[in-house]
Hints:
The chain is α+β, with helices and mostly antiparallel strands. Helix content is 50%, strand content 10%. Strands 1-2-3-4 form a four-stranded antiparallel sheet. The chain starts with 12 loop residues before the first helix and ends in a 7-residue tail after the last helix.
Amino acid sequence: MPATAGCVAGSTPATRDCGLTSDLDARRASRREEATLDTLSPREIQSRIRSGATVAELVDDTGMDQAAIERFSGPPLAERAWVSEQARACVVRPGTEDLETLVRRDVRDSIDDLRWDSWRRPDGRWTVVAALGEDSPISTWVYDPRSRSVQPDDAASHRLASEDVVVPLRSTTSTVSLPRDEATPARVHDEDAHASDDETDGAHDAAGGADSDDVDVPAPSPAEAARGKSRKGRRASVPRWDEILFGAGQSDT
């Protein structure tokens, strides 16, 4: 039998008694650990820590060994830290700052003391707390991992959420500049519009000039011009006395 701590190797009864005592101590320690785990299972430990309990609170509530609780506390504590980080990146209202920026601006004189924590609620959402130090919460929020949104949960958070701190939004519409050859029709259209305006003004001037002495007479057609020339070339005939007496068009009898 190998020598145990505090015992001398040998085959004396005292040696055998020392080894037996060590085995009994190990078995008692094992039974205490099993009894502790039966009192609060690893799943229950993690569930309670995920819901906001601390290791010290579980030790006080159950009388369990602190090392046994700390053995299973790592995963839920890491989850709580990760959820609070996700919540801090959420925008409180559309067009406003994210949660972390909002709170940091509110406690800008004590940023070094700012602490974040979160724990799971019975409805599946998470409570997120901003605190100065360990025991000085300054605002409480509710984070919904399904919609990735945060809502105020106390008077301080409602005050922060209602402040009109607007962050300029990036424009969703981009300005498209047309190439020169595509922009030319617009300029041509403008020039046509100016030309039509000039023509309209000219028409108004012509209409207004109708009352003046200068009247534009239409030019005669070629046929009318020819008839005018033929009439102009003939001498006007003087009617005879009998035509005046008896009427024009009667022949001599």
